[in-house]
Design goal:
single chain, about 475 residues, mainly beta, Ubiquitin-like (UB roll), Porin, 2 domains, 16-stranded antiparallel β-barrel, four-stranded mixed sheet, 7 helices, 20 strands
């Protein structure tokens, strides 16, 4: 939702005749009325309307600036589709004794703030099926107005019930606005049980969470916080790598976390947000971690600093008939000991690096990685699609990518890997389809290893639904 300037709000405010002809006169703010926001508490409005309620004696320009400040604060809460303000004169009001500006008596004014809340309560579910994980189920409940203060509670669970990658991950998130709606308190917890027998020959249970401050910026969010987790590696097979065997047991992890996320995307259909057409996304993650084995006197179990980031660029041509997508991601870990198997970088799989099995580019993971990819999307030809517009959701695509992951690019024998693919994709927030054929290879002339390579057809289907409800004040 865009926020207008003072000049913008001047065109939005509906000034009545008296105020229009009396801009030089002082204004006495007699009353502020909020319409359409009954679901929220008085304390919520008291904080956000503080710039407007801090005094009653204004000039017209000062009053409009205070309205704009309060309007901006309301918009930053992300719980309103629209926020509009109207000034009316209140000619019959009895005014207290207020200072005069020259010989002019103040005009009594009423400010009406009209609000249209978003759907504040939602229940969503997704069924996903792909050639790697088979079936997965996602369920999510969101309450955007907990305690009637626009505090968010987000509960979710993700299930992958079938082997070889069966898992269960649940999370509970709480976000509360502070006095400044641009700064929010975040408390996020999780519990996970993952069967990693296919690629790590082991299983893992973990739980933990993060507490921090979430900063809302234009088109971006920044997080600073502290996270804690406990991980247990168990059911380790004899064929597991040394990296896995060194992590067997119970470990605790304490981290100082910083995250930055930026997104400025235009979609082929901006209303439904189907298929990105132009724009950029950027994600940067940094952590300083202290890792310790429980019930051990040796505290040095792989303390490290970790940085990773990803960049995506989208550009469309010929009335969105062709869309180019470029991506780059990279990361590095610096430590004074062996890095826990759960903290290492991995590549491979349907949502990571197609053409390879899950995390199979280097099954042991690594402390360094990079990935470069390009994809060209084109609209379906008229003879197939039967339409004359480029603004449809179905696209042909051709893609290629190159990557590497290792502990040391100078001394490591881990080769670069490449993948090429072509297919058809349908992208929609509530339904998607991707069917492609991929050919992959390791760029190592001394090795013909095909371990982890998954040439051939790969596909993914997802269908979701949501029940949206209003939260009433009753």
């Amino acid at each position: 939702m865009s926020v207008g300037s003072v000049s913008d709000i001047q065109s939005q405010l509906l000034l009545d005749e008296i105020l229009t002809k009396s801009k030089a006169q002082p204004v006495y703010l007699n009353e502020v009325t909020v319409v359409g926001g009954d679901s929220f508490s008085n304390g919520f409005y008291k904080v956000l309307l503080a710039p407007l309620l801090s005094k009653s004696d204004y000039t017209l320009s000062q009053l409009m600036e205070s309205i704009e400040a309060s309007r901006t604060a309301l918009q930053k809460t992300d719980v309103f589709q629209s926020v509009n303000a109207v000034i009316r004169s209140k000619g019959n009001a009895i005014l207290p004794k207020v200072p005069k500006y020259g010989n002019d008596d103040p005009i009594s004014a009423l400010v009406i703030i009209n609000l249209q809340p978003i759907k504040l309560n939602s229940n969503a579910g997704f069924i996903r099926f792909n050639s790697q994980d088979y079936l997965s189920l996602d369920f999510n409940y969101v309450n955007n107005n907990c305690n009637k203060n626009a505090e968010m509670v987000d509960l979710g669970v993700s299930l992958t019930p079938y082997k070889p990658n069966n898992s269960m991950v649940s999370n509970a998130k709480f976000v509360s606005h502070l006095n400044n709606p641009s700064i929010r308190l975040l408390v996020d917890s999780f519990y996970a049980n993952q069967e990693n027998q296919e690629w790590l020959q082991s299983s893992e249970k973990s739980w933990g969470g993060i507490i921090g401050l979430l900063y809302k910026l234009p088109n971006a969010n920044a997080l600073t916080g502290v996270s804690f987790s406990e991980r247990t590696i168990h059911d380790v097979q004899d064929t597991a790598s040394d990296v896995v065997k060194k992590a067997v047991g119970d470990y605790t992890k304490l981290s100082i976390v910083n995250q930055l996320s930026y997104a400025n995307i235009d979609y082929i259909n901006n209303k439904t947000k189907n298929f990105p057409a132009n724009g950029v996304t950027l994600d940067v993650n940094k952590e300083i971690t202290f890792n310790r084995e429980l019930y051990s006197s040796d505290h040095n179990k792989g303390n490290f600093a970790k940085v990773s980031g990803s960049l995506n660029l989208f550009k469309s041509f010929f009335n969105n008939a062709i869309t180019a997508h470029g991506s780059v991601s990279a990361g590095s870990i610096w430590g004074n000991g062996p890095v826990h198997v759960s903290d290492r970088f991995y590549l491979g799989g349907y949502n990571s690096f197609r053409g390879f099995a899950k995390n199979a580019v280097n099954p042991e993971g690594g402390a360094l990685f990079y990935s470069l990819g390009t994809t060209l999307y084109t609209k379906i030809p008229q003879i197939i699609k039967g339409t004359r517009t480029a603004n449809n959701d179905l696209r042909f695509y051709v893609s290629s990518a190159v990557a590497n992951i290792s502990d040391n690019w100078v001394t490591s024998s881990s080769p670069d890997v490449v993948t090429f693919g072509l297919g058809i994709a349908y992208l929609n927030p509530w339904a998607s389809l991707d069917l492609g054929y991929y050919i992959s290879s390791r760029l190592d002339k001394y090795s013909e290893s095909t371990i982890g390579i998954r040439d051939g057809f790969q596909f993914s289907v997802s269908i979701g639904g949501s029940i949206l409800q209003w939260i009433n004040s009753s």
